[in-house]
Amino acid sequence: MKHTQAAEIFKDFLKNGRNRITPERFEVMDAAIDHQGHFGADDLFIEMKNQKSRVSRATVYKTLELLVNCELLVKHNFGENLTRYESNYRKQTHDHLICMDCGRIVEFINPKVKKLPGEIASSLGFEVESFSFNIFARCKSTKDCTFYKKEKK
Ligand SMILES: [Zn+2]
Ligand SMILES: [Zn+2]
């Protein structure tokens, strides 16, 4: 186990939910935390397989959901067939812009966006628990958009 602090959090979570504590689940946890940027469950499964891991696809899927529930990962629904996970372990919040053609995901941090949910919620008599802000867009230049690159081939 590489991430012992995360492993503690995960272990407690599994225990409290009466989930089985298996070495495979911690293997998935390490791989998911180390993964840069956004990834799909299948991406992680294939990468782990390439690293000679024996973890099953079902275990990867199930474990990713458990990691979301204990907040070590964040799950993004960027659209149909575009579920992406992201490590939440080194918490740094940002928002996303997604190209609807090629699926390219760009992260950004904008102070205005950060402040807005709090302002809206408090003006309506609420406190913000969480919010999500996704911009769905299209690459301006078809040269940058892999969707068009694929079409040409
Ligand atoms: Zn992100
Ligand atoms: Zn694009």
Task: Write up this protein.
With 153 residues, the protein is an alpha+beta fold. The chain folds into two domains: 1-90, Winged helix-like DNA-binding domain superfamily/Winged helix DNA-binding domain (Arc Repressor Mutant, subunit A); 93-153, 2-Layer Sandwich (Dna Ligase, domain 1), CATH 3.30.1490.190. It is 44% helix and 15% strand. The protein is built from six helices and five strands, in the order H-H-H-H-E-E-E-E-H-E-H. The strands form two sheets. It has a three-stranded mixed β-sheet with strand order 4-3-5, with no helix packed on it. The model has no long low-confidence stretch (mean pLDDT 89). Bound molecules: zinc ion (2 copies).
Outline type: flat
Small ligands present: zinc ion
CATH superfamily of the largest domain: Winged helix-like DNA-binding domain superfamily/Winged helix DNA-binding domain
Order of helices and strands: HHHHEEEEHEH
Quickly count the helices: 6
Second-tier CATH architecture of the largest domain:
Orthogonal Bundle
Mean pLDDT: 89
What number of domains?
2
CATH class of the largest domain: Mainly Alpha
Any idea what the radius of gyration is? 18 Å
- For the report, how would you describe the main beta sheet? 3 strands, mixed
User: Structural class of the secondary elements?
Assistant: alpha+beta
Contiguous runs where pLDDT drops below 50 for at least 5 residues: none
Give the CATH topology of the largest domain.
Arc Repressor Mutant, subunit A
Strand order of the largest sheet: 4-3-5
Helix content: 40-55%
Strand content: 15-25%
Question: How many beta-strand runs?
Answer: 5
Rounded to the nearest angstrom, the distance between the terminal CA atoms is 43 Å
